[in-house]
Amino acid sequence: MKYVDEFREPGIISGVARELARTVDPARHYRVMEVCGGHTHSIYRHGLRDVLPANIELVHGPGCPVCVLPTGRVDDGLAIAARDGVVLTCFGDMMRVPGTKGTPLEMKARGADIRMVYSPLDALRIAEQHPQKHICFFSIGFETTAPSTALTILRARELGLQNFSVFCNHVTIVPAMRAILDSPDMRIDGFVGPGHVSSITGCRPYEFIAADYRKPVVVAGFEPLDILEAILMVVRQLNAGEARVENQYKRIVPWEGNPPALRAMAQVFELRPYFEWRGLGFISQSALAIKDAFAAYDAEKLFDIPGVRVTDPRGAQCGEVLKGVLKPPQCKLFGTECNPEHPVGALMVSSEGACAAYYRYAVYSAAVEAPA
Amino acid sequence: MCLAIPGQIVELSSEQPLLARVEVGGVQRNVNVGLLDPGEVGAGDWILIHVGFALSKIDEQQARDQLRMLQAMGEDQLAIEEIRGYSFADRDGELDEIRR
Amino acid sequence: MTTIESTRRTPRFADAQIEMAHGAGGTASRRLVEGLIGPYFSNPALQAFSDAAALSIEGTRIATTADGFVVKPLRFPGGSIGELAVNGTLNDLAVSAAKPVALMATLILEAGLATSTLESEIEAMAIAARKAGVPIVGGDTKVVEHGMADGMYVSTFGIGATDPRVTLDPASIRPGDRVLLSGPIGAHGITILLARGELDFQADLVSDTRCVWPFVEALLSRCGPGLRWMRDPTRGGVATALNELVRSSEYGIALSEENVPMHDAVRGACELLGLDPLHIANEGQFLAVVAPGYADAALEAVRSVEGGERAVYIGEVRAEPKRRVVGINGYGGTRVIDMLVGDPLPRIC
Predict the structure, then answer these.
(1) Residues of C with CB below 8 A from A357's CB?
(2) DSSP string, A173-239
């Protein structure tokens, strides 16, 4: 697969790993946070920890939109699904996230019409095909996904659909990064910045991290070679005492971002005054709501949702893991009460959750050779 | 959900200007190109696909330049080591340390 | 690690209701069978939890197996429910080193099912059975109300003569044994996924459903004594099958990820959807663990049969890590390959 395989090429990866081993200062311990859950997943999926020098510690960030969604919002979505004549559509990742009374998949087993879709446009198509039902799309995601939801709402209006709505749970990445930087528990030296979010937002939004907090940020792609190169770039900056925003993912990310996508977002969404994030608490100006002009497509205006705050179950330390304070196995429930089959929190469910990555790919660190 | 994958445009739809037929390693799907500037992409171009939308056009020259640079990095490394006279055994030891 | 230890204990079945995951062939299915069903039926033949039950009738070794088919849609590129039902049971016998002797089939039909649809499936079953040289000697038919059985469900039962030249046992695998895979993975599961039409992807891909007895027969005649274990990786894929193997043994398996063959479309679909090809169902492949001394002969045996050209070794048994399957890539990066959790692709067989 082009633009994938070349960035998984073992020879080049080994070469960059050697360069990284040469570049790290052996007397120094580097704490680098990969913000995006997609990076966490890729690091574990591709066994990158096996080729990293021992003095680079990767801290997993909160960039997993399913993980940071509070249980109360999942309950709200399921309340919409429970209504007669409503079809709830969502991404595959959402299907096994636990709400208070069960996961979407369990609700489906009990008769709720909940369907997995690959794209919000598929939800739109279901709405066109079933005019007698109301199709609600449970949208999640950072700025990577929000423009797609925006275009979908615009298309729904173009089509004059009367039976389609979006339950909007889009969040923005910068406030979460700021919350982490401001947190007293945090000691991060540098960041591997979110690649696909940046394809929309561009690299400028991270400049405050370099300017005000004096930490390097390297926006990175998701293939193992991308992540390795980005880590190398962070280490080089740290060694030189620099703090700049750099773009490793140049083939995809334009420095100024994607203007049509940003315009679509601005047309359809506005910032909520505040929004609750699992583990990070209430953060102001960190989430998107649908503007009044599109109220006809806003599930929160069309339906009465419970809006109840639900705290994490006892013993669950989702918040600390999301902030990078704890590694997944340090959570008391990890692997025992909380595992992929019976997840207590979303971090064990989502393909981008740190706990899921850790559990599924659990570290096996020893020099090994592949069988012939 | 940052899952996005590179795909190649097979053709732009004539009836619906915002739709492109895209292929990802042998699988085809219609993708909405409304987040890109009109006329920015055409058949044969590579784009990044996320939840049925194109987010970005892939800059093929950037990709080539980057790979070339990274490949050279690894080769320079080996060249330096050979000049310094590292034996094969030493280099393997270093790789084991990397993998620890 | 507690996670590894906890998966070794016999799982208790504490779920209040049955979910789709319990039929997916992964961890939930295992818990249901071992934690709820097994304890009631408890007997030595069942406790082995292998693809076919080993019985002995007055000294003659027999293998029997049963399988249910609920695939949706009924017909898909490369096959249909009838063909799957016949090949699936034949393959369970084959990988138990038993030459299939006879099949039976039960049909549960939805009232309103078009006769032409039923006839197509009966014909498909007849063709598949005839191709394998195995008669369908009986069965049963029931009809249920419109709205149930989704068209039709098929169950097949098979009986075979266990080959005396070989004793297959997961506990017999040893470090250094090679893991053989008959061909490219994921074709069936992804074909079904695309055939459902819900995701609006298209690809030039067909189900790999076929009877694998001819390959197994070649293996048995050329290297019977070197065969330790075989399995057809259906629901849950290669990853689940190999995990089930190592959990019944004292060793682990290392897979060379780059050696695992798959069609481009399987790879593309999995990358697009975030699926792992090692978890996708196959209906025409098998895995065999072969002692090193017989490795060359085994590969040659499978490749010599038409359709076996892409057979390849994908890994080997290792002393560590015990009871785990580990994937190793080209630059030495490792990851644990676990059994399937949940049910990303329901009703694929």
Answers:
(1) none
(2) HHHHHHHHHH-TT----EEEE-HHHHHHH-SGGGHHHHHHH---EEE--SSHHHHHHHHHHHHHHHH
